[in-house]
Amino acid sequence: MATPTASSATGHMNTQRPRIGLAFSGGGFRATAFGLGALRALNDRGVLPDVRVVSGISGGSLLTAMWAYGPTDFAEFDASVITMLHTNLQRELLRRCVHPRLVASNTRSVALALSPGQLKRDRTSTRTEALVAALRARTFGTKLLSEVTHPGLNTIISATDLATGNAVRFGNTISSCSPHGTIVEPVTVAEATAASAAFPALLPQVNRSYTFTRSDGTTHRETMLMTDGGVYDNLALSPILPGRSPQHTSHVHDLDHIIVVDAGGGRITKRAPNFMTGRLRRSFEIAHTRSQDGMRALVHEHRSAGRLQGLTYTYLGMPDNRLPVPVPDLVPHAAVKDYPTNFSPVPTDKLDLLTNRAEQLTRALIDLYCPGLGG
């Protein structure tokens, strides 16, 4: 059923379709699987045709890419994601990393980066090129970002530029980094998704040189050192929030509803870090949690202030006893909260738990907070 809105000219009601933004958080294959469950609920409710923009980070960017650039038939798309989640992507990356061509390219790149004086060059190749190649081996990864398979859908796949500390936003209508401007060259889905998913502890940055156009029409060349988009915003929310100014960003979307799919496991567990490694890890966890809490508070503030008509926040880590509505036969939080955020194959039983919890929560929360969506 469409969301009715008042017409200022006539006083009558119109039935303009709602404009929905969809955000998929990071979290490796856990985020991909959890997001798939949410998409199943949205598809069953008839909500997906009203999604105007989808934003993804890391494991969420993989799901974003597979949906936006994959089969238009949902069952076919669903099957393709399950196949990917059962794939040992980590083993595939190791195999591709030792390919002689990539080894030679990486060795030459490292040698130049370590060279003295004027011989020194930025790295042009890292082992993360194995992830680019692995994604390019899939049909969705071979496409250009402009080749979205769903009419009217805008995409945002975000990475983080280590050189400037800013987000790099890749999309079907525009790709940009705010200090530099708009990227001129076409970008493949594989390249954007790999940059978004390059978890810094395991994968080096994806290095690319792009031509940028500034707002005054001038062009310049810059090298981007791109790592996991979750370093900047692990919820993929910032580019679709209300109130963004076109004077400061290329990604501004006028939306009525936002649906967030957050695969975070919940509050960090209590423990005492007695040594340096533990202290550093704990400090990172606290900073990361605080950043995410701030973004969650911000999107709820936008809803409370009336800048959004509706907000649905499907959160893997929500304690079951704090849900705003009882959910029959809910997959318990304890069954999924500790599932790892890597790219190892997801066993069928764990996949069912992750997707079912997301599907159950999404259905219940839409019924509660946005009952007019879909149909």
Properties at a glance:
single chain, 375 residues, 12 strands, 17% strand, disordered N terminus, alpha/beta
Written overview of the protein:
- By secondary structure, this protein is of the alpha/beta class.
- The protein contains 10 helices and 12 strands.
- It has helices spanning 28-44, 59-68, 74-85, 89-97, 100-113, 129-136, 189-196, 230-233, 276-304, 348-369, and strands at residues 5-6, 13-14, 20-24, 51-56, 154-161, 167-170, 176-177, 181-183, 206-213, 219-228, 257-262, 310-315.
- Strands 5-6-7-8-9-10 form a 6-stranded antiparallel β-barrel. The chain has a two-stranded antiparallel ribbon with strand order 1-2.
- A hairpin with a 5-residue loop joins strand 6 and strand 7 (176-177).
- Helix 6 (129-136) crosses helix 7.
- The chain is globular, with a radius of gyration of 21 Å.
Oligomer: single chain
SSE order, as H and E? EEEHEHHHHHEEEEHEEHEHEH
Q: What is the helix content?
A: 25-40%
Q: How many beta strands in the DSSP annotation?
A: 12
Distance between the termini: 4 Å
Question: Strand percentage, roughly?
Answer: 15-25%
Structural class: alpha/beta
